[in-house]
Specification:
Elements: E1 11-15, H1 43-55, E2 60-64, H2 74-82, E3 89-94, H3 103-109, E4 113-117, H4 123-130, H5 135-148, E5 152-156, H6 167-177, E6 180-184, H7 200-210, E7 214-217, E8 227-231, E9 234-241, E10 254-257, E11 262-264, E12 273-274, H8 276-279, H9 283-295, H10 319-322
Parallel strand pairs: 1-2, 1-10, 2-3, 3-4, 4-5, 5-6, 6-9
Antiparallel strand pairs: 7-8, 8-9, 10-11, 11-12
Helix pairs in contact: 1-9
The structure holds S-adenosylmethionine and iron/sulfur cluster (SF4).
């Protein structure tokens, strides 16, 4: 459907859990209280919301979290959402710690894409930034996913003083496996200190020193605002999601569903529509609530380039609670 600012909204990011097996410093630092499972939407409710949203023109779903694969039955959920009339694409975002167990099943389901987060290639730095993760597991998942033929993307958040010396090494994975590596500017949401984020302009400059043949790639690679670069005759692409320095709100096509049933029209604002009361009512009433939430999507976020939050109702929750 089209919102009141004329944008076609067709993409929903669905967080299926607040929980995670990692504790990335900028997303879900140590000491976060677990949300009780009774407050988390059941798979039945999640599927119903996706079905009703599909009636309104939502055709692409991203399963996210928290870490989606810590919730039992995640693959069954993906299979059910894939089967909904009107849903054309289901993709998943993961930290890759347990993904290798599910690759065959995901391939069988016909998953449309897997995004795997990776901020460093150094095992100690990996453990530091994720609180407890093992680099090898994520690297194995990336290899398996890429080799399985599933459309695979790596998501990297560049951070000054942490991984700024590894940008080309991480980008090189794109050309090694013929996949996309995307650099996502750190956003001032939750635990993140956006002051430590690097701009994608800096990243592109760094990459061009190594690959002077990098050229803009106009083709569409995914659901969102990433701008891509490629090298002539080489498989694999480099994407940039410039959340801070390249405001793309005018083209925003997405809404988010939190694992606790709140529909969030803009990542930046804490304004939400609580769908829980509507889950007790008819599909008609649920659809009406979703339609109104989408219609009233804010025109633009307002984090400034310095990372300062610019509104009283700016988001205060952690990224792991919103769904990334
Ligand atoms: N656990 C999964 C994962 O790590 O891919 C899915 C959820 S995670 C919240 C989704 C993505 O959000 C990850 O790539 C993570 O790096 C990114 N992210 C988390 N906090 C962020 C922030 N403040 N700014 C930019 N990206 C962020
Ligand atoms: Fe977990 Fe993903 Fe957040 Fe890291 S970025 S804490 S893996 S939800």
């Amino acid at each position: 459907m089209t919102d009141k600012h004329g944008r076609k909204i067709e993409y929903m990011r669905v967080s299926i859990t607040d929980r995670c097996d990692l504790r990335c410093k900028y997303c879900m630092p140590e000491g976060i209280e677990k949300v009780s499972m009774s407050k988390i939407l059941t798979y039945e409710d999640l599927i119903r919301i996706c079905r009703v949203s599909a009636d309104l023109g939502i055709s692409r779903i991203k399963i996210t979290g928290g870490e989606p694969f810590v919730r039992l039955g995640c693959c069954d959920l993906i299979r059910s959402i894939k089967a909904i009339d009107g849903i054309e694409q289901v993709t998943v975002t993961t930290n890759g710690q347990t993904l290798e167990r599910y690759i065959d099943e995901l391939k069988d389901i016909g998953i449309d894409g897997i995004n795997i987060s990776l901020d460093t290639l150094d095992p100690e730095k990996f453990r530091y930034i994720t609180g407890r993760g093992e680099l090898e597991k994520t690297l194995r998942s990336i290899k398996l996913s890429a080799e399985s033929g599933i459309k695979t993307k790596i998501n990297t958040v560049p951070q000054r003083g942490f991984n700024d010396d590894e940008i080309t090494d991480i980008a090189e994975l794109a050309f090694r496996y013929g996949i996309d590596v995307r650099f996502i500017e750190l956003m001032p949401v939750g635990a993140a200190d956006a002051g430590t984020g690097l701009s994608n302009v800096e990243i592109l400059e760094t990459l061009r020193k190594k690959w002077s043949d990098l050229e803009a790639d106009g083709s569409v690679h995914g659901n969102g605002p990433a701008v891509y670069y490629k090298r002539a005759g080489v498989k694999g692409g480099i994407g940039f999601i410039s959340a801070m320095h390249g405001k793309f709100c005018a083209y925003c096509n997405r809404v988010r569903l939190t694992s606790q049933g709140q529909l969030k029209p803009c990542l930046y604002y804490d304004t939400v529509t609580d769908l829980i009361p509507f889950l007790k009512r008819s599909d008609y009433e649920l659809r009406k609530a979703i339609r109104e939430a989408i219609m009233n999507k804010p025109e633009a976020h307002c984090f400034s380039e310095t990372g300062k939050k610019g509104a009283d109702n700016a988001e205060h929750r952690l990224m792991s609670q919103i769904g990334g």
